[in-house]
Design a protein that fits this description.
The chain has 10 helices and no strands. It has helices spanning 4-20, 23-30, 35-62, 66-79, 89-99, 104-108, 114-129, 132-158, 170-190, 197-224. Helix content is 77%, strand content 0%. It has one domain (4-224): Heme Oxygenase, Chain A (Up-down Bundle), CATH 1.20.910. The chain is mainly alpha-helical and 226 residues long. It starts with a helix and ends with a helix. The longest helix is centred in the N-terminal third of the chain and has 28 residues, at 35-62.
């Protein structure tokens, strides 16, 4: 008999495939995007990169026991370069932006597109209004579960571009290696709470909702970047 989490993965897969096979990724991997289009994508994604530690922080704040909280704390620690600010994921992402010839002034004066701002606000609303299990579903099966595959697609796509100098892709590369580990740890701490139909429904609904929101993010970004 398939357990709940294995069944959840099977049911999530069609939606995950819509993300991984998204038309924007096909455009990215075709090498057809201009430098300006890559910059537009990079700036918009920057705001999600900035937001992710907040999502983890919400989860950590809502969890009441150390054992359940530990994978989130480890994830946050890695997000912050394990104590070395030069390896903070925000710093690594800024290095990527700089390699696209985006200056600090351009980065810090930029604003997200309306659709990206809505995407981030919707994620934060789930975190703000939901239980710790809702947030763990968002972070785990809704995000980290397939993140390494997604980062690999983006990394391989960006590797095709050379705008006079090699792009700094360390931010994308490290996530190919670490996100599977984050996913398995988060799923392991969710498992003991799957003792009621209410909790199962919470994990199921918020996992799907998170992927749905991400798919909308890529849909709108693909329309916006002409």
């Amino acid at each position: 008999m398939i357990d709940f989490l294995e069944d959840l993965k099977i049911q999530l897969n069609p939606e995950i495939q819509k993300v991984l096979k998204h038309p924007f990724f096909k455009r990215l991997n075709s090498g057809e995007l201009s430098k300006q289009q890559i910059q537009m994508f990079a700036i918009d994604y920057y705001f999600y990169c900035q937001c992710f530690p907040q999502l983890l922080g919400y989860a950590a704040a809502k969890i009441v026991d150390d054992e359940t909280r530990m994978p989130i704390i480890k994830n946050l620690w890695e997000e912050h370069g394990e104590g070395d600010i030069r390896k903070s994921h925000r710093v690594l992402y800024t290095n990527f932006l700089n390699s696209l010839d985006l200056t600090a002034d351009e980065i810090f004066s930029s604003k997200p597109s309306m659709s990206t701002e809505k995407y981030i606000n919707d994620l934060l609303t789930i975190c703000n209004n939901g239980t710790f299990l809702d947030v763990l579903a968002l972070v785990g099966p809704g995000t980290e579960y397939f993140a390494s595959q997604e980062f690999l697609i983006i990394y391989e796509g960006l590797s095709k571009y050379d705008f006079g100098r090699k792009l700094d892709l360390e931010y994308w590369e490290i996530h190919i290696e670490i996100d599977d580990h984050h996913s398995s740890e988060t799923l392991n701490v969710i498992k003991p709470y799957l003792t009621s139909e209410q909790n199962k429904r919470s994990v199921f609904n918020n996992s799907f909702k998170t992927i749905e929101l991400e798919l909308m993010f890529w849909d709108e970004l693909n329309k916006w970047i002409k």
